[in-house]
Description:
The chain is mainly alpha-helical. The protein is 73% helix and 2% strand.
Amino acid sequence: MARRMRENLPFVHLVPNLITILGLCCGLTAMRLTFDGLYIYAAALIVFAAAIDGLDGLVARRLRATSEMGAELDSLSDFVCFGVAPALLTYRFALFPDQGLGWVLALTFAICCCLRLARFNTMRDQPDAPRHFLGVPAPAGAGLGLLPVFATFAGLGNFREMPLMVGLWLGFVGFLMISRIPTPSAKGLKIARDKARFLLIGVAICVGLMVTRFWLFMTLVCLIYLAVVLFQAVRHRRF
Protein backbone atom coordinates (compact mmCIF):
# COMPACT_ATOMS: atom_id res chain seq x y z
CA MET A 1 0.00 0.00 0.00
CA ALA A 2 2.79 2.42 0.89
CA ARG A 3 4.56 1.63 -2.38
CA ARG A 4 1.36 2.30 -4.34
CA MET A 5 0.95 5.65 -2.61
CA ARG A 6 4.51 6.61 -3.58
CA GLU A 7 3.81 5.68 -7.20
CA ASN A 8 0.60 7.73 -7.35
CA LEU A 9 0.95 11.46 -7.91
CA PRO A 10 -1.66 13.81 -6.38
CA PHE A 11 -3.54 15.71 -9.07
CA VAL A 12 -2.86 19.05 -7.41
CA HIS A 13 0.85 18.51 -8.00
CA LEU A 14 0.14 18.53 -11.74
CA VAL A 15 -1.72 21.85 -11.67
CA PRO A 16 1.44 24.01 -12.12
CA ASN A 17 2.51 21.92 -15.12
CA LEU A 18 -0.99 22.18 -16.58
CA ILE A 19 -0.75 25.98 -16.37
CA THR A 20 2.63 25.84 -18.12
CA ILE A 21 1.18 23.62 -20.86
CA LEU A 22 -1.71 26.08 -21.27
CA GLY A 23 0.76 28.90 -21.89
CA LEU A 24 2.75 26.72 -24.29
CA CYS A 25 -0.41 25.91 -26.25
CA CYS A 26 -1.11 29.65 -26.51
CA GLY A 27 2.36 30.27 -27.94
CA LEU A 28 2.12 27.43 -30.45
CA THR A 29 -1.38 28.47 -31.52
CA ALA A 30 -0.16 32.06 -31.90
CA MET A 31 2.40 30.80 -34.42
CA ARG A 32 -0.28 28.97 -36.37
CA LEU A 33 -2.52 32.04 -36.43
CA THR A 34 0.46 34.12 -37.57
CA PHE A 35 0.87 31.95 -40.65
CA ASP A 36 -2.89 32.24 -41.24
CA GLY A 37 -2.58 36.05 -41.20
CA LEU A 38 -4.71 36.41 -38.06
CA TYR A 39 -2.20 38.69 -36.36
CA ILE A 40 -4.55 40.28 -33.86
CA TYR A 41 -5.53 36.91 -32.40
CA ALA A 42 -1.93 35.73 -32.39
CA ALA A 43 -0.86 38.84 -30.46
CA ALA A 44 -3.73 38.36 -28.00
CA LEU A 45 -2.62 34.79 -27.28
CA ILE A 46 0.95 35.90 -26.61
CA VAL A 47 -0.35 38.58 -24.23
CA PHE A 48 -2.45 35.95 -22.46
CA ALA A 49 0.55 33.65 -22.15
CA ALA A 50 2.53 36.53 -20.62
CA ALA A 51 -0.33 37.28 -18.21
CA ILE A 52 -0.33 33.75 -16.79
CA ASP A 53 3.46 33.43 -16.81
CA GLY A 54 4.71 33.08 -13.29
CA LEU A 55 1.35 31.78 -12.13
CA ASP A 56 2.63 28.22 -12.47
CA GLY A 57 5.59 28.92 -10.20
CA LEU A 58 3.39 30.67 -7.65
CA VAL A 59 0.91 27.79 -7.61
CA ALA A 60 3.73 25.25 -7.35
CA ARG A 61 5.16 26.99 -4.30
CA ARG A 62 1.73 27.29 -2.66
CA LEU A 63 0.99 23.60 -3.26
CA ARG A 64 4.56 22.56 -2.44
CA ALA A 65 4.73 20.93 -5.88
CA THR A 66 7.95 22.45 -7.19
CA SER A 67 10.16 20.16 -9.26
CA GLU A 68 13.13 20.32 -11.61
CA MET A 69 10.95 19.05 -14.43
CA GLY A 70 8.45 21.85 -13.87
CA ALA A 71 11.20 24.47 -13.89
CA GLU A 72 12.70 23.18 -17.14
CA LEU A 73 9.27 22.86 -18.74
CA ASP A 74 8.50 26.45 -17.79
CA SER A 75 11.77 27.65 -19.34
CA LEU A 76 11.14 25.81 -22.61
CA SER A 77 7.59 27.15 -22.73
CA ASP A 78 8.87 30.70 -22.18
CA PHE A 79 11.26 30.36 -25.11
CA VAL A 80 8.46 29.29 -27.43
CA CYS A 81 5.91 31.84 -26.19
CA PHE A 82 8.17 34.86 -25.70
CA GLY A 83 11.07 34.16 -28.05
CA VAL A 84 9.89 32.24 -31.11
CA ALA A 85 6.23 33.32 -31.33
CA PRO A 86 6.85 37.13 -31.10
CA ALA A 87 9.77 36.87 -33.54
CA LEU A 88 7.63 35.04 -36.11
CA LEU A 89 4.66 37.35 -35.57
CA THR A 90 6.73 40.50 -36.00
CA TYR A 91 8.51 39.01 -39.01
CA ARG A 92 5.31 38.12 -40.82
CA PHE A 93 3.58 41.32 -39.73
CA ALA A 94 6.19 43.88 -40.82
CA LEU A 95 9.55 42.34 -41.77
CA PHE A 96 8.51 39.85 -44.45
CA PRO A 97 9.09 42.26 -47.39
CA ASP A 98 12.77 42.49 -46.38
CA GLN A 99 13.34 38.77 -45.99
CA GLY A 100 17.11 39.03 -45.56
CA LEU A 101 17.74 41.61 -42.85
CA GLY A 102 14.28 41.15 -41.38
CA TRP A 103 14.83 37.45 -40.78
CA VAL A 104 18.28 38.07 -39.30
CA LEU A 105 16.82 40.52 -36.78
CA ALA A 106 13.96 38.14 -35.94
CA LEU A 107 16.52 35.37 -35.33
CA THR A 108 18.57 37.74 -33.19
CA PHE A 109 15.56 38.49 -31.00
CA ALA A 110 14.77 34.78 -30.51
CA ILE A 111 18.39 33.90 -29.69
CA CYS A 112 18.64 36.78 -27.21
CA CYS A 113 15.52 35.47 -25.49
CA CYS A 114 17.10 32.01 -25.31
CA LEU A 115 20.28 33.46 -23.77
CA ARG A 116 18.22 35.50 -21.31
CA LEU A 117 16.38 32.39 -20.12
CA ALA A 118 19.62 30.41 -19.86
CA ARG A 119 21.11 33.09 -17.62
CA PHE A 120 17.97 33.14 -15.48
CA ASN A 121 18.12 29.35 -15.06
CA THR A 122 21.70 29.51 -13.79
CA MET A 123 20.78 32.19 -11.23
CA ARG A 124 17.43 30.95 -9.91
CA ASP A 125 18.93 28.48 -7.42
CA GLN A 126 21.42 30.89 -5.93
CA PRO A 127 20.57 31.61 -2.27
CA ASP A 128 21.65 35.25 -2.62
CA ALA A 129 19.79 35.90 -5.87
CA PRO A 130 18.93 39.61 -6.25
CA ARG A 131 15.39 40.87 -5.80
CA HIS A 132 15.47 42.31 -9.30
CA PHE A 133 16.08 40.92 -12.77
CA LEU A 134 19.24 41.40 -14.79
CA GLY A 135 18.07 42.43 -18.22
CA VAL A 136 14.50 42.57 -19.46
CA PRO A 137 12.72 39.27 -18.62
CA ALA A 138 11.34 37.19 -21.46
CA PRO A 139 7.61 38.05 -21.09
CA ALA A 140 8.37 41.78 -20.92
CA GLY A 141 10.77 41.40 -23.85
CA ALA A 142 7.99 39.81 -25.89
CA GLY A 143 5.72 42.75 -25.08
CA LEU A 144 8.37 45.30 -26.04
CA GLY A 145 9.16 43.39 -29.22
CA LEU A 146 5.48 43.49 -30.18
CA LEU A 147 5.15 47.20 -29.42
CA PRO A 148 4.97 48.18 -33.14
CA VAL A 149 2.23 45.57 -33.59
CA PHE A 150 0.29 46.91 -30.59
CA ALA A 151 0.67 50.50 -31.79
CA THR A 152 -0.60 49.56 -35.24
CA PHE A 153 -3.65 47.83 -33.79
CA ALA A 154 -4.26 50.90 -31.58
CA GLY A 155 -4.34 53.13 -34.66
CA LEU A 156 -1.23 55.10 -33.71
CA GLY A 157 0.46 54.46 -37.05
CA ASN A 158 0.96 51.80 -39.67
CA PHE A 159 4.27 50.20 -38.73
CA ARG A 160 3.81 47.54 -41.37
CA GLU A 161 5.10 50.15 -43.80
CA MET A 162 8.28 50.68 -41.73
CA PRO A 163 10.05 47.30 -41.83
CA LEU A 164 13.53 48.71 -41.23
CA MET A 165 12.41 50.61 -38.10
CA VAL A 166 10.54 47.58 -36.77
CA GLY A 167 13.53 45.31 -37.44
CA LEU A 168 15.98 47.60 -35.67
CA TRP A 169 13.55 47.91 -32.78
CA LEU A 170 13.35 44.13 -32.49
CA GLY A 171 17.13 43.91 -32.38
CA PHE A 172 17.26 46.64 -29.72
CA VAL A 173 14.79 44.76 -27.52
CA GLY A 174 16.91 41.64 -27.92
CA PHE A 175 19.89 43.63 -26.61
CA LEU A 176 17.83 44.78 -23.62
CA MET A 177 17.07 41.16 -22.74
CA ILE A 178 20.73 40.10 -22.62
CA SER A 179 21.92 43.33 -21.01
CA ARG A 180 22.78 43.63 -17.30
CA ILE A 181 20.34 46.46 -16.65
CA PRO A 182 18.58 45.87 -13.30
CA THR A 183 14.87 45.70 -14.07
CA PRO A 184 11.96 45.55 -11.59
CA SER A 185 10.76 42.24 -10.20
CA ALA A 186 7.35 41.75 -8.60
CA LYS A 187 9.08 40.11 -5.62
CA GLY A 188 11.06 43.24 -4.92
CA LEU A 189 8.25 45.78 -5.30
CA LYS A 190 6.92 47.41 -2.15
CA ILE A 191 4.04 49.87 -1.82
CA ALA A 192 3.78 52.35 1.04
CA ARG A 193 0.58 51.92 3.01
CA ASP A 194 -0.51 55.51 2.43
CA LYS A 195 -0.02 55.05 -1.33
CA ALA A 196 -2.02 51.83 -1.64
CA ARG A 197 -5.21 53.71 -2.51
CA PHE A 198 -3.57 55.22 -5.57
CA LEU A 199 -2.56 51.75 -6.72
CA LEU A 200 -6.13 50.54 -6.42
CA ILE A 201 -7.39 53.53 -8.42
CA GLY A 202 -4.72 52.83 -11.04
CA VAL A 203 -5.90 49.24 -11.32
CA ALA A 204 -9.45 50.46 -11.94
CA ILE A 205 -8.21 52.78 -14.70
CA CYS A 206 -6.21 49.94 -16.25
CA VAL A 207 -9.23 47.64 -16.26
CA GLY A 208 -11.28 50.36 -17.96
CA LEU A 209 -8.63 50.79 -20.66
CA MET A 210 -8.33 47.05 -21.14
CA VAL A 211 -12.04 46.74 -21.75
CA THR A 212 -12.42 49.76 -24.04
CA ARG A 213 -9.02 50.28 -25.74
CA PHE A 214 -7.03 47.12 -25.16
CA TRP A 215 -4.27 47.71 -27.72
CA LEU A 216 -3.82 51.31 -26.59
CA PHE A 217 -3.51 49.99 -23.05
CA MET A 218 -0.82 47.49 -24.13
CA THR A 219 1.05 50.25 -25.96
CA LEU A 220 1.02 52.49 -22.90
CA VAL A 221 2.16 49.66 -20.62
CA CYS A 222 5.08 48.89 -22.93
CA LEU A 223 6.10 52.56 -23.14
CA ILE A 224 5.95 53.02 -19.36
CA TYR A 225 7.99 49.86 -18.81
CA LEU A 226 10.52 50.96 -21.42
CA ALA A 227 10.90 54.32 -19.64
CA VAL A 228 11.58 52.48 -16.36
CA VAL A 229 14.21 50.27 -18.01
CA LEU A 230 16.00 53.21 -19.62
CA PHE A 231 15.90 55.12 -16.33
CA GLN A 232 17.49 52.15 -14.58
CA ALA A 233 20.16 51.93 -17.29
CA VAL A 234 21.08 55.60 -16.88
CA ARG A 235 20.88 55.42 -13.08
CA HIS A 236 23.17 52.41 -12.74
CA ARG A 237 25.23 53.14 -15.88
CA ARG A 238 24.99 49.47 -16.72
CA PHE A 239 24.27 47.97 -20.10
